[in-house]
Predict the structure of Spermidine synthase.
Amino acid sequence: MITFDKSPALTRCFHDLSLSMVSMQEFLRKLLPYMEKPLTEKEEKDVLFLFSQYGVPQHSLKISPKLLKNHPYFRNIQLKEIQTETVSYKETVIPKRRLMNTDFMKPLGRHLFHYHPLGYFEEDIRMPALHEGHTIWMAPAVSEFTSMEEGIRKGHGKCLTFGLGIGLIVYMWLRKEEVTEVTIVEFNEDVIQLFQKHILPQFPEGKSVNIIHGDAFDYFTEDFLEQFDYVYVDFWESTEDGLPYYTKLMETGVDLPQVDFWIEDAILMDVKYLTFLYLKHVYEGKAPSDFMFQQDFSLAKYARKIHFFFQHLEMTICSPEELLSLIHSRNVLRSILSI
Ligand SMILES: C[S@@+](CC[C@H](N)C(=O)[O-])C[C@H]1O[C@@H](n2cnc3c(N)ncnc32)[C@H](O)[C@@H]1O
């Protein structure tokens, strides 16, 4: 069972962590009215003022359209408007001056404050997006490219990705000399057919692209994954559906160093907050099991995992540094979800 060697420094650290959560919620509440709508000049100043008030290190909201227009995929790959039974490529317009997220959450400071980098284009931007019903699998959002950069950079040798979308990562991998072949597991046949007919012919030739029509969960096994040098898992739309899918993958117990997950740190954020609240509950001397009953239905499952993990962890936290490294450890959060 986790225990604490209580001290004024540790009490102070718990207090600062709580404050950082409150201040983040306040920041997000103040920001919300400005999101996803065109900003007036006065509103732009208000947003930048909010940033400076909360110490967010971003001093301009303007994003150059070149960021999209010079991106190799959007410069070289033409997508027509196409509709199949389940999916379509449709033109999407991002209106000028609309404030949007340009990346997923980033930590600020050593406590729990996180922010989304934000921005707007100075002109309307038109790009095709992949729709399935109400789900937009892949849109011309800057956040999509920035959040995939690491996966693109790390691709080498035989690469595997779960989730085809518009094949953005596949294209970027094929352009790299160090990538020899690419395999994709995709479960929607229409997505595969659209890709094979309209997108793949525009990709560089000479390297093999294998598409497996199947469910990611059936292929997420050590035996299958070990055939590849690098694996990128991206079959969720956002952090919302990402957390249950990612949890299911963790529950398989498969843990290989060459596997990365799209927006993993953002997905883990709710688990991190819940872990902090659990540890605070224990530090304050409250019954650990009560914690689970205080969570609403959507979080109860994760609260149970957290309780189980810390109940079986023989560790005494003595300093703020130990507390912070525990809360921020990706390995700890992965282990919690794997239960
Ligand atoms: C966000 S998109 C992937 C975007 C892709 N990384 C790209 O570069 O364009 C997610 C894709 O995962 C597919 N998908 C959803 N659930 C899946 C599952 N269980 N197994 C395999 N593919 C799945 C969707 O049909 C969709 O094509």
